[in-house]
Amino acid sequence: MRPLQVWLPTLSTSLADRAVFAAVRTAFQAWNGESIVWLLPGLGGPTQWTERESQRVLAVPAAHVERVYVYHVGENGWVWGPESMNRFPGGRVEGLLDTWINLWEEKGCTFAPMSDSYVMDVPAVEDGSLQMEGQTVPTSTPVGDDSTPAQCALYRRMAVPVRQKFFHLSLLPYSLGVQLPERLAGLCPVGGSIYEIVAQKKTKQIASQSVTDVDRAVWQAKDFAPPYVTEGRATREALWLWPLFMASQAAGLDGGAVVLDEIEIRFGLRFRDLDAAKQTDAWRRTMARPEPVRRVWGPIGLFAALLLERLEAGQAFRVCERCGRVISGTRKKRFCGPRDSAACYRQRRAEDQRRSRKIRGKQLGR
Ligand SMILES: [Zn+2]
Q1: What is the mean pLDDT of the chain?
Q2: Phi and psi torsions of 13, nearest 5°
Q3: What is the DSSP string of 245-292?
Q4: Which of 41, 95, 229, 261 has the most CB atoms lying inside 10 A of its own CB?
Q5: Closest listed residue to residue 55, CA positions, set 41, 43, 67
Q6: Could you tell me which of 52, 94, 55, 66 has the C-alpha nearest to residue 7?
Q7: Is residue 149 situated within a structural domain?
Q8: Which pTM value belongs to this model?
Q9: What distance in angstroms lies between residue 325's CA and the mean position of ligand 1's atoms?
Q10: Residue 169: its pLDDT value, please?
């Protein structure tokens, strides 16, 4: 797959608020390999520091607090970043798009009153040094005074195409959240919101479009993706080396030895260990050199990018003729396989067996 850089905000995914969008863009521009990014009110300008020996942090000025973790997905689908094994199921993105598209077909996804505040440790500069202090922060950007839409309007608006109404959704009250299935829970902000719901619906609609017209679906996905999918930059170390390290470790190999071997094979560079290697000019030229990457913001951006990736490869989705679920597979595939929907697959097998018993019965003249 095409490598990705994934920014996962803690509080809110939406970029509909202009002030939030501006702060996020400032962070995109100032970012230089940090794994944690803070949007912080009261900050004079972009600031960098290091936590717990090697965790690099960036903070940029903003109207509202937000904490973002930055991950990199290699072409092998493995994810590198803070606690990536917990945030992404098994440390990988495989199968996530299908779970997202069939969100409402899965059990375990429920609406719930959405918390409008969250307590977390936020960095603050005191007496010239940095302190973490507990703060209660809003989980969504405040709505304007001119917005008092009825709750039922929320449901009506869910049904409209995202492109037409998306930015009007910032006027909605933030009283409703969605609790996601376990596999997706690590990707979404604490509240969950209408933005994810609308984006999920749009993602599924585009996937369904690809059943009859892949080219049109690609065009729709490209139209839908920004500003949640943009062009960024990352290093070969983040996009290639660490995902390879993760995959090697998971396979029971010594990840450090594997990547050092691969560096020698690919680039003709022999290093004894990674720490020493990082101090060399050769490392800076090959591994630490910036290259373009598809950058995504939150689950909305991640699933838009995974959809785009699949459609651009010409892989249309199918619709199961039995249950109507949008599934992955070749043109010949007509029904859910065991990985699409275990229930649909089991029921169809049971029906097939009943049918074949009947046919056998007839042949035997019973
Ligand atoms: Zn099915």
Answers
A1: 83
A2: -85, -25
A3: HHHHHHTTS-HHHHHHHHHHHHH----S-HHHHTTSHHHHHHTS-EEE
A4: 229
A5: 67
A6: 66
A7: yes
A8: 0.85
A9: 6
A10: 34
- From CA 109, how far away is CA 242, in angstroms rounded? 33
Which residues are 7's β-sheet partners?
A: 70, 297
> Ligand 1 centroid vs 238 CA: distance in angstroms?
38
Lowest mean pLDDT, pick from 34-38, 137-141, 188-192:
137-141
pLDDT score, position 147: 34
Residues 39/64, Cβ–Cβ less than 8 Å:
yes
**Amino acid in the structure at residue 299:** P
In-domain check, residue 347: no
User: What is the maximal distance between C-alpha atoms in the chain?
Assistant: 93
Question: For residue 53, how many C-alpha atoms fall within 13 Å in the half-sphere facing its CB?
Answer: 0
The range of the structural domain enclosing residue 87 comes to: 4-264+291-316
Query: Do 134 and 123 contact (CB within 8 A), yes or no?
Result: no
Q: How far is the CA of 302 from the centre of ligand 1 (A)?
A: 25
Q: Which residues surround ligand 1, an ion (CB under 5 A)?
A: 320, 322-323, 325, 336, 344
Tell me: the pLDDT tens digits for 90-149?
A: 999 998 999 899 888 776 566 665 566 788 899 986 766 778 889 888 765 444 333 333
> b/e per residue, 49-58, with b = 16+ CB within 10 A?
eeeeeeeebb
- Residue 230 bridge partners (DSSP): 295
Structurally, how many domains does the chain consist of?
1
Q: What is the pLDDT of residues 265-274, one digit of tens each?
A: 999 999 988 8
**242 part of a folded domain:** yes
Q: Supply angle C-alpha 95, 329, 230, rounded to 5.
A: 50
CB contact at 8 A, 41 and 62: yes
Task: Find the 328 Cα to ligand 1 centroid distance in Å.
Answer: 11
If you count them, how many residues does the chain have?
366
Whether 175 maps to a domain, the answer reads: yes
